[in-house]
Amino acid sequence: MSQDSARVILHVDMDAFFASVELLRHPELRGLPVVVGGTGDRGVVAAASYEARSYGVYSAMSSVQARRLCPDAVFLQGDHAHYSRTSAVIMEIFRTLTPLVEPLSLDEAFLDISGSRRLLGEPLDVAQRLRCSVKEETGLSCSLGIAPNKFLAKLATTSAKPTASRGGPIEGPGVAVVSPGEELEFLHPLPVGRLWGVGPATLAKLAPLGVVTIGDLSEVPQELLVVVLGPGAGAHLHQLSLGRDNRPVVANSEPKSMSQEQTFAQDISSMDALRSELVRQSEAVASRLRHHGYRGRTVQLKVRYRDFTTVTRSQTLEAPTDRGTDLVRTAWSLLLRLPVERGVRLLGVGVANLLRGELQQQLSFDDALAGLRDDPGRRNPSRAALDASDSEWDATNSAVDAIRNKFGAELIGPARLAGQAKQAHGQQWGPAAEHDVDTASKSGVPPPAETS
């Protein structure tokens, strides 16, 4: 453990993040069981307040099951863009302590303050000050774990969390510390299921070995674990059982993929309807690629059928792309090979093997108009589709991005989507219920306020 002894790693996890952000916008809902996610029958719970958790509602549960467990829950469709903006504010607060901030998700991050201890003070004091700063600047609470490595810090955070009750969260300590030299004393009594990578299948393989706690696992020879679990998992879990994790905190890590998916209110078996949805999603993914300065080489297609069978297909392109037309063409060729007549419940398009492309110069709206005046032929979308070279497509995409930046994403898009009903592009957790407005008004929930 000597390599870890000089390290001080913080793991910060916001408390019931999505639900807590919604409660800031809807303070009249405090004290009620609130669930954020897809509000329709095919929705999925993204987050639950501590009141809702006391009924057994948790993330990734189907909305139907959540309603069954907690009939009085208030369901909110969620606003991923707003949560992302709030997350950006929180991450900047973290960066006032150290530049070594590794976000794991919108509401979770590792911080390495090893090199700042003399400047910042004792780690426990640093953590308490950070909790206060987050609360003062955002109105949100968080829990922290402190340890010599990432693995132990994340485990410690769980010990610091509030617990659920019908009357609201019962505050935990807020900060939990695993000091150097105390790693195994903290780790070994814990259930082995608390280890990363230990799910039901692995637990079933470990049970015949008499493994119940992490301490039990540490006593199993690594050679035997490799035989039972395979070389990768066996060696990995052996190291974790001894509290060893030498991974550094990596700031500004590059994304591995970008994707978009949609769960439909009704199963779709029409190729024409699926083609339109492919176009919509491909445009959304391509726009995000260009916005962040990436191009991708591997196009991915995800299809989930009505029986919940999920199929994924992928194809690697000769050259990386950030064009929606390339994504549509490739994803469509993959979809044509699948039996959509079974009824498609969910469709998704993604791009992996991302590379930093040349950042396109962002055109202003006036520049975009000037480009159209200089080349009137570009106003004819069918001619552009047939005759445009790569550079012309890039220029056209830049013009479209400029128009969307000024007037909104719904103003301009592929001709195939013209006149179609607006889709909830940002919805991550399934379709909305058909009567969301009525349900919300009966619960005393106003529509989410516009934010800037």
UniProtKB/TrEMBL annotation:
This is DNA-directed DNA polymerase. It catalyses: DNA(n) + a 2'-deoxyribonucleoside 5'-triphosphate = DNA(n+1) + diphosphate. Belongs to the DNA polymerase type-Y family. It is found in: Cytoplasm. The keyword Lyase does not apply. Residues 9-199 form the UmuC domain. GO terms for molecular function: damaged DNA binding; DNA-directed DNA polymerase activity; metal ion binding. It holds the Pfam family IMS. InterPro entries: DNA/RNA_pol_sf, DNA_pol_Y-fam_lit_finger_sf, DNA_pol_Y-fam_little_finger, DNA_polymerase-Y, DNApol_IV, PolY_HhH_motif, Rev_trsase/Diguanyl_cyclase, UmuC. Keywords: Cytoplasm, DNA damage, DNA repair, DNA replication, DNA-binding, DNA-directed DNA polymerase, Magnesium, Metal-binding, Mutator protein, Nucleotidyltransferase, Transferase. It comes from freshwater metagenome. Monomer. GO terms for biological process: DNA repair; DNA replication; error-prone translesion synthesis; SOS response. Its EC number is 2.7.7.7. Its cofactor is Mg(2+). One of its GO terms (cellular component) is cytosol. The lineage of its organism: unclassified sequences, metagenomes, ecological metagenomes. Residues 418-452 are annotated as: Disordered.
